[in-house]
Amino acid sequence: MDRRVKRTKEAIYTACLELLMEKEYNKITISEIARRADIDRKTFYLHYTCIGDVFAEYSKNKMAELDLRLKLKGFDTNPFDIRILFKELEQQCKENMDLFRHVAKSENYNEFWLNLDGYVVGSLEKFYMNKVSTDPVRLRRSCEFAVAGIKTLYRNWLMGKYEESLEELSEYMATVFDTHFISKISL
After folding, report:
1. Angle CA 102–154–111, to nearest 5
2. ∠ CA(184), CA(123), CA(119), 5° rounding?
3. 45, 67, 121, 158: which could join 104 in a potential S-S bond, CB 3.0 to 4.6 Å?
4. Alpha carbons within 13 A on the beta-carbon side of 5
5. Residue range 64-74: mean pLDDT, rounded
6. 90-140, pLDDT tens digit by residue?
7. Could you tell me the pTM of the whole model?
8. How far is the C-alpha of 160 from the C-alpha of 40, rounded, in Å?
9. Residue 88 burial (C-beta neighbours within 10 Å; 0-12, 13-18, 19+)
């Protein structure tokens, strides 16, 4: 990617994220983003058609970053260590804590949570596909069920409903996943 394009997109991301911390997503305007990013509105439209495109690309980039980090840690190799996934999710939370807390507290970010669901379900499904003796439909349902629980626990923690540390929550989820989920999907 051209350096100028990269700088412009980073300025747009930064402006969007700053504005997101100040107001709800549906209250942000392209004019505000352009002013904050120090670009013209037409420059915004050279890269995106709407604000939703910015957040979709940002989410996609964060998922790709998480995917790379998981690969570098050996997540997709055998033996499977679910703690790698939870440690990396924990790290992503720490790096973007204010943003995740804001997103967790609002109902306006359903697309973000759906993208996250899809990414984690797909990752688990891809890994287990040839490693367990269950049909693909049951595997998919099992992964969706597990991810729904994981997401709920993270969101509740981000909203301040739990007192334990993020590290303790991650360890708890990894233990539950190891002892209950993995043994059940191969029935």
Report:
1. 55
2. 120
3. 158
4. 6
5. 87
6. 898 899 888 888 888 877 777 778 888 888 888 888 877 777 777 888 888
7. 0.78
8. 39
9. buried
